[in-house]
# Entry
Amino acid sequence: MNGGGMIDFEIHRNPQPVTATEREALLVNPGFGRVFTDHMATIRYVEGKGWYDARIEPRAPIPMDPATAVLHYAQEIFEGLKAYRRADGQLGLFRADANARRFVESAKRMAMAPLPEELFLDSIRQLVDVDRDWTPSSPEASLYLRPFQIASEVFLGVRPAREYLYVLIASPVGPYFSGGLKPVTLWVSDEYTRAAPGGTGAAKCGGNYAAGLAAQAQAMELGCDQVVYLDAVHRRFIDELGGMNIFFVGRDGNLVTPELNGSILPGITRSSIMTLARAQGRDVSERPVSIEEWREGARSGEIVETFACGTAAVLTPIGVVKSAEGEFTLGDGGTGPVTEGLRQSLVDIQYGRAPDNYGWTTVI
Ligand SMILES: *Cc1c(COP(=O)(O)O)cnc(C)c1O
# Structure
């Protein structure tokens, strides 16, 4: 059962699923991360035995001993991806193989047993199939999938755990922004950083998010929506937002995004945008961008748009940037045409409205 060998999922159907009428009511306006499906997938790992006991089972609380390692030392990783209701009524996954690969990389960084990619993908296909009726069909809605892995060993010593639990849950979500694209206001944190060289910035782990909440709270107190982080060494170059990568659009229509320096999460949306922008004939470069370059570029008109990107919100225009040195506006503070166009190209592929020339889509 170890390594890449396949395990069959035992399927235990929920004996008391939500009724079709209740479900339809919940799908009208699900918001984000508040409504959950009837089932979850779980797989266990023990050192020496490998991954075993793969199940699709009724969604339920996870009983846990108070000395379970994850509760103390935060050995935890997660992923985020979506199943989309396509024009023909089928369900599509977008680049799930890239999530599977990144999950392995995150596991390695956190000294956790990596889940074989095929097992990760199988869990996704099986859960989406069992809970397929939970995928909303309203525009820009989707079934958000949240795989995560925790150190489940009951032990207070400080060393990598020898037991892990992988869980996949699913949550129908509405459009991230109800009422259309709204540009966000960012706070440039001068107090906090997100990731340091040698740290965990490139891993998708809950600890990075916990460490960012104080900065997020500060941003909100200052009337901003999100934090944009500067690099930890020079406190000068733009890394990314708390949970989204960033792109700058030049006057010439070309794109720049910070290079993956080990402190930036390698976003799958980021990588997809790079491909789509190049297909539109744009030049895309990965290089450090300083806060001065951004501020001066916005003022001179050299930088005409800036957007953030990630699976949850797709592409989010950035309207205003506030910092201790004052604030600046991107373009007219609205949604620029390059941001809008790239967003449209991406969601059209995700929802099966445009041909996928890249093999990004899996239909379930
Ligand atoms: C998940 C995440 C992103 C976006 O990654 P996608 O694969 O595009 O969803 C960006 N930054 C951070 C810190 C993240 O956790």
Notes: The mean pLDDT is 96. The radius of gyration is 21 Å. Residues 80, 204, 240, 243-245, 265, 267-270, 310-311 surround pyridoxal-5'-phosphate (CB under 6 Å). The chain has two domains: 10-173, 184-350.
